[in-house]
Design a protein that fits this description.
By secondary structure, the chain is of the alpha/beta class. The chain has eight helices and eight strands; from the N terminus they run ββααααβαβαβαβαββ. Strand 4, helix 6 and strand 5 form a beta-alpha-beta unit.
Length: 222
Amino acid sequence: MPLKKPEIALIDLDGTLVDSVPDLAWCTDEMMKALGMPVRGETKVRNWVGNGVERLIKRALLDQLEGEPAEVLYAKAAPIFMALYAENPSERSQLYPHVREGLQWLKDNGIRLGCVTNKDAQFTLPILQNLGIADFFEIVISGDTLPLKKPHPAPLLHGAEFFGVTPDKAMMIGDSISDVKASRAAGFSIVCMSYGYNHGVDIRTAEPDAVIDTFAELESLF
């Protein structure tokens, strides 16, 4: 069943627009080396990303998805990672196939665009600029823009308010259960990418309104 064309689309960053794991994995492993701990590797990091760098650091320290490391260890690790990532936000990262064409199609069809991510602005903005897609977005809502992050609906509702539209005229494009939960709570429609970061779980199990394999398929949804 075709979806109703929205007036705005708010789009997630990591795992949706950009494969950022290569940089995140490099920074994670360099942090672990600095701490004298075993490196974790890109395969593990790919399963850990999606909830902000703070959570990624904790998962790397624990070598698992859930739990809290010792506060003193996290306090030592976090500045190391943040310094590494500030210098390497997009050295190894790249856009997923057809992202630029998909963004252009949305814009050409009168759909205004915002980016909503749990990544802090100090990392988000350089990535958008360095990969050449910053100009598509009228607003960027980062993980530190508001007190609350996805899966809370606040970032999405903030975006809708910015554009002056009601949630029933807004769509989220993401890749994770966090994006689905935020969209449902905000009253947005939600389209998910099949390739993103969802901790190894097929995003279809979260029952978004549609799942597509590339941004080139967006035009077939409406």
